[in-house]
Amino acid sequence: MTGLRERLCKGETVFGTMVRDALTLNVVDALLWAGLDFFVLDMEHTGLDLSVISSLLQYAYVRGLAAIVRVPALDKVFIGRVLDCGANGVWLPHLDSPEEAKRLAFLGRYPPQGGRGATIPWFKRTKTQEFSKLSDFFANEDRQVALIGQIESKVAVDNIEDILATGILDAVVIGPLDLSMDLGVPGELQHPLVEEAVSVVLRASQKYKVSVGLHTANLENLRLWRQRGMNFLVYSYDLVLMAERARAARHELLG
Question: What pTM, to 2 d.p., does this model score?
Answer without folding.
Answer: 0.95
